[in-house]
Amino acid sequence: MPEIVNKKILPYSIDKLYDIIIDVERYPEFIPWFKKIKITSSTDSIIITDVTIEFMFIKDNYTSTAELQKPNKVRDETIASVRIAMIEGPFDHFNTIWSLKAVDRDSCLVDFKCDFSFNNKLYDNIALVALRPMNKRIIDAFVKRITTV
User: Fold this and answer.
1) Coil, helix or strand for 130?
2) What CATH number is associated with residue 88?
3) Lowest mean per-residue pLDDT among 1-15, 36-50, 79-93, 114-128
């Protein structure tokens, strides 16, 4: 499967964007195919979740882990990231990376990448057809979520 890639400079601080990204239980409010996300374990650096997805006739569950790197200064840049990987579920592989880099105090470059493949080839074919619209919907949903906070 090709990966979903999106880069965009947004007029919000790195701290605000990071807080929205790690608020995973609220994803179903703004990303339509996420029906339920439940945090099963959480520390300052790791979040483990059970996720229910629905897309067309596909309905499935998976467990994922998110590695959190809070905003911090490295050399002359302030950066943060959230790396999400599937632990168990319907995917052959599932990896998502949210990378944030402060442009200035009130704007941030968001670099979103998602690479996945289902164990089921029919699911893969459906996802491949829907990939372009999904890519745009993810970043649009994220921007919409920011404006409601």
Assistant:
1) helix
2) 3.30.530.20
3) 114-128
C-alpha triplet 121, 29, 103: angle, nearest 5° = 90
Q: How many domains does the chain have?
A: 1
Q: Would you say residue 3 has pLDDT above 80?
A: no
Task: Please provide the average confidence, as pLDDT, over all residues in the chain.
Answer: 88
CA distance 142 to 148: 10
- Residue 19 DSSP SS3: helix
Q: How far is CA 80 from CA 6, 13, 116, 133, 140, in A?
A: 16, 11, 22, 27, 21
Domain extent for 43: 4-148
Q: Which has more confidence, 65 or 127?
A: 65
